[in-house]
Each structure stands twice: as C-alpha cells, then as structure tokens.
Amino acid sequence: MNFKELTFSFKIQDFLAFRRKVQAVNIHEMIFNISDQYDFEILEFPQNQLSLKLTLCDIVQLRELLDGARFAIEMYSMLHEVLGDYEVV
Fold first, then answer.
1. Which of 15, 19, 24, 50 lies at 20 to 30 Å from 7 by C-alpha?
2. How far is residue 7's CA from residue 1's CA, in Å, rounded to a whole number?
3. What confidence tens digit (pLDDT) does each residue in 13-28 have?
4. CA distance 19 to 13
5. CA distances (Å), 12 to each of 4, 19, 66, 87, in order?
6. Cα(13)–Cα(64) distance, rounded to whole angstroms?
7. How far apart are CA 56 and CA 26, in angstroms?
8. How large a percentage of the chain has pLDDT more than 90?
9. Domain boundaries, the chain
C-alpha cells in the first residue's frame, strides 16, 4: 500500500486490524470539535513500528484507500473460489 509517499506491506490479518483502527476514528468529532487535540489523529502501522500524525483529510483518504484494497482482496478471493485454479490461455 502506498500512502503519503510511504509504502507499506501488510499481512492480511494486520491489514484488517489496521483498517478497523482507521474506521474507529471519530471523524464527526474531528469535524465539529474546535479543540486543538482533535485537529489530528496519531495512528500506528502494524509491523512497521511507525506512527503517522494524520489530519482529517488524511484519515478520509486513508479510509478510501483501505476500503478499495479490501474490495480488491474480497473480489480476488471470490474469483479464486469460483474459478479455482483455471488458467486463461
């Protein structure tokens, strides 16, 4: 996954856990709370020992990226179930 000029690799379980963590960020609170502590969220990437300070826009973009990746994973899994080991020649 590429995000903010960084490249990350995830195991599927780490990806799903990280996606849940991003989905758990309260965007409503970030939008409507004027306190400085709600201007950003610090998220840690699993297995990389890296934390990012993300703004509201960053969180929204990351959610979209993760949702797209999850869709691609599910679609690939479904195609593999349906088609099995068939090869296209």
1. 24
2. 6
3. 988 999 999 999 999 9
4. 10
5. 21, 10, 12, 25
6. 19
7. 10
8. 37
9. 2-83
